[in-house]
């Protein structure tokens, strides 16, 4: 499972001209599911993301997590995170999960995140979405449950 995590002042996701998910200070997570991912990958990545110490403390040091600041989370599915661009000019998506499996693990990611008592908003799995955000810092991190990077 892969994620692009962005620290944001606010973010929203729109489908067909309607905002379906919106957060204030917190994290925007673009989430991709790989064909070999399991429930363990989901739990690992949720706990890693929610506990990343990437928010400033009173001294301006990145020392606080999303849970510490009681921030908000916007999770948007993005299968293109598994696009392999090493050969040719068209990305190969052979490592991404089948849509049914991907949607199940995406929903599990969202449900598990909600268990931590934070506000969690989402995009719409499989839909064409427009994501708007104000990146804070900017702080952007790449995470992989298989620890490939």
Quick structural overview:
The protein has helices spanning 39-51, 66-69, 99-114; strands at residues 2-15, 18-23, 26-32, 55-56, 62-64, 72-77, 120-122, 130-144. It is an alpha/beta fold and 149 residues long.
Which descriptors apply to this entry?
single chain; 149 residues; alpha/beta; D-tyrosyl-trna(Tyr) Deacylase, Chain: A; six-stranded mixed beta sheet; 8 strands; 22% helix
Q: Count up the helices.
A: 3
Mean pLDDT: 97
Look at the helices and sheets and give the structural class: alpha/beta
Strand content: 35-45%
Distance between the termini: 12 Å
β-strand number:
8
Largest sheet: 6 strands, mixed
Residues in helices, as a percent range: 10-25%
Order of helices and strands: EEEHEEHEHEE
Query: Quick one: CATH superfamily?
Result: D-tyrosyl-tRNA(Tyr) deacylase
By CATH, the topology is D-tyrosyl-trna(Tyr) Deacylase, Chain: A
Multimeric state of these chains? single chain
Shape: globular
Examine the secondary-structure arrangement and name the CATH architecture: 3-Layer(bba) Sandwich
User: What is the gyration radius calculated from CA atoms?
Assistant: 15 Å
CATH class group: Alpha Beta
Number of domains: 1
Spans where pLDDT lies below 50 across 5 or more residues = none
Describe the structure.
With 149 residues, the protein is α/β, with parallel strands linked by helices. The chain has one domain (2-144): D-tyrosyl-trna(Tyr) Deacylase, Chain: A, CATH 3.50.80. It is 22% helix and 38% strand. It contains 3 helices and 8 strands, in the order βββαββαβαββ. Strands 1, 2, 3, 6, 7 and 8 form a 6-stranded mixed beta sheet that branches. A two-stranded antiparallel sheet has the order 4-5. Helix 1 packs across helix 3. The model has no long low-confidence stretch (mean pLDDT 97).
